[in-house]
Amino acid sequence: MNAYLIPIETALIFFPFIAAIMSIPYAIHDYRKYGKVHKLKTFLFFSFVFYIMTAFFLTLLPLPVVDKPRIPSGHYVQLIPFNFVHDIMKNTNAVLSDPRTYLHLFSESAFIQALFNAILLLPLGVYLRYYFKRNLKQTIFITFLVSLFFEVTQLTGIYGIYKYPYRLFDVDDLILNTFSGFLGYLITPMFTYILPDINKVKAKIISEGKYSTYPKRIIAFLIDWCICSVFLMFGGIIVFIIVTFIYFILIPYFTNGFTVGKKLLKMRLKGPNDKLTFIQLLKRYGVLIYGYFLTSDILNSASTYLSNIEKYDFLILITILQLALNLYVFIHIISHMIKHDPILLHDKISGVSNIDI
């Protein structure tokens, strides 16, 4: 049982990190294609990621402790189709003519191994048909390739990490894994009877919204801020003012509302008229960038300086100002998100908002 629990536990440990890495590219893809990230579609996608990780670890783990030949005969490839039937018949206590003995199969390693391979990629067949809309031929072919990848990974000792293969390359595994994907394709209607049509979910996403949603705005801003941060590493406040002025004011002015982040997520800034004015952008980012971020940076610098010279009376005042500023911004954003109000303070002052395109 540990042979199956260890891979699942490992997948649970690594999944949050993989999901965090994939979340931004996934969000960019969905925002560009559908205009919004749908909760059900997101859940299905990341459940698929977790399943693939678990299936991979089930074929990979546990890793050998000692890098030495693990198959005494030195034969690492089994190319006889349906050899698993012979293995089961040779070792089983079940009698074909007596159904009461069939339960013995579930305590016999040869049968359990074959059963495991026959269901390992069954969920993949379901995902391919339901979520990715693949036909039967594509499902069988993709399932075969995934199974082949697992087998080659084992045969090559994880592509050279180990000197010797630590598991047998078995053609029966390919047959049973591919069959499991085929079976998953066949039983998919049992799940689609419960789950909504994924095409209707996507169509619903596309039809929603004029103003950009807060998650979409946040992701776009994070992308833009990461780009700016590359240049902000080379200087202090003066560099901060110059870089942010060019990126957040001049670039949107000449592109009529676009930054890299906004372009990636198919959104732009729009004022009362078709053409953004320089003054509108100066007002907007004067509040957002210089009113909040620059002020925070100055307060942080002052806090560090006062701490170094041990002026704790003034340090307390600066700390209170920092907390008050951050608390105000936090409450302001959260309250607008709860009310589904897309117009924040810097939007209202400038008359410029984020819209989907």
TrEMBL record:
User: Pfam families in the record, alphabetically?
Assistant: VanZ
Enumerate the transmembrane spans: 6-28, 40-63, 110-128, 140-162, 174-194, 214-232, 238-255, 276-294, 314-334
Question: In its keyword annotation, does this UniProt entry include Transmembrane helix?
Answer: yes
Q: Which UniProt keywords apply?
A: Membrane, Transmembrane, Transmembrane helix
Superkingdom classification of source? Bacteria
Please list the residue ranges annotated as the VanZ-like domain.
48-191
Query: Membrane as a keyword?
Result: yes
According to UniProt, the name of this protein is RDD family protein
